[in-house]
Amino acid sequence: MAVTDLVVAITGASGSPYAIRLLEVLLRAGRTVHLVISPAATEVFDREIGRGVMLDPAHFDPVALLGPHAAGLNFDLLKYHNFRNFQAGIASGSFLTGGMVICPCSMGTIAAIAHGISENLIHRAADVHLKEKRKLIVVPRETPLGLVQLKNLVAIAEAGAVVLPAMPAFYTLPQSVGDMVDFVVSRVCDQLGVETGLAKRWGTPSQGS
Ligand SMILES: Cc1cc2nc3c(=O)[nH]c(=O)nc-3n(C[C@H](O)[C@H](O)[C@H](O)COP(=O)(O)O)c2cc1C
């Protein structure tokens, strides 16, 4: 049975542009996305993008979240869940998904996942993806990394998560911040098995080598 629903969580690490672009490309690819946002993420989002995000489902506005990236998107595909809503389907292993990505992923959320502390819906859904042996991709952004953080990353990698740090490359000769964002987003989409056309692939004519 091919399940195409994906879970996207946004937490309070720096990197809001990655989250916005990821949501945009997944929705443009026609994927149903279950979205959860942590309170800390709204603070970072406000600082980095200059737009507020309302976490209350009654006031959640995808256009406010995505801004200019919202143009032409089908928001019927976007299922928003409050971070405290453990009644959401994605809190249970019986709700089938094609995978989950936490982008960006704070070291606090990494720690919660590493230690099985399902304090909010993001931690719980991540726990579920690991126990069900489904794809869980985390996109951390922190530097330098301390020993506790490194051990937590090893713990979740050993449990099956893909650790995909927000590390744009320069060999692709990016011309803009958007190019650097797309590099990371395309690597996430490769992991999810979503073809976006964003990737410049080494060893192919588009990459020139
Ligand atoms: C502006 C701002 C930037 C932050 N950047 C990072 C970051 O890059 N990485 C990180 O792990 N935490 C970062 N933090 C701290 C987290 O937001 C904080 O640890 C929070 O408790 C994480 O909660 P969450 O995992 O539930 O989102 C940042 C906080 C603020 C206000």
Task: Describe the structure in your own words.
This protein is of the alpha/beta class and 209 residues long. It has one domain: Flavin prenyltransferase-like (Rossmann fold, 3-Layer(aba) Sandwich), CATH 3.40.50.1950. The protein is built from 7 helices and 6 strands; from the N terminus they run βαβααββααβαβα. It has helices at residues 16-28, 39-49, 62-66, 107-114, 121-131, 147-158, 177-192; strands at 6-10, 33-37, 78-81, 100-105, 136-140, 162-163. Strands 3-2-1-4-5-6 form a 6-stranded parallel sheet, sandwiched between helices. Helix 4 (107-114) packs across helix 6 (147-158). The longest helix is centred in the C-terminal third of the chain and has 16 residues, at 177-192. It starts with 5 loop residues before the first strand and ends in a 17-residue tail after the last helix. The structure holds flavin mononucleotide (FMN). Flavin mononucleotide (FMN) is lined by residues 11-14, 38, 40-41, 43-44, 47, 106-109, 141-142.
Radius of gyration: 16 Å
Task: Name the shape in a single word.
Answer: globular
CATH architecture: 3-Layer(aba) Sandwich
Q: What is the strand arrangement across the widest sheet?
A: 3-2-1-4-5-6
CATH topology (level 3) name: Rossmann fold
Low-confidence stretches at least 5 residues in length (pLDDT < 50)?
none
Strand fraction equals 5-15%
Termini distance? 38 Å
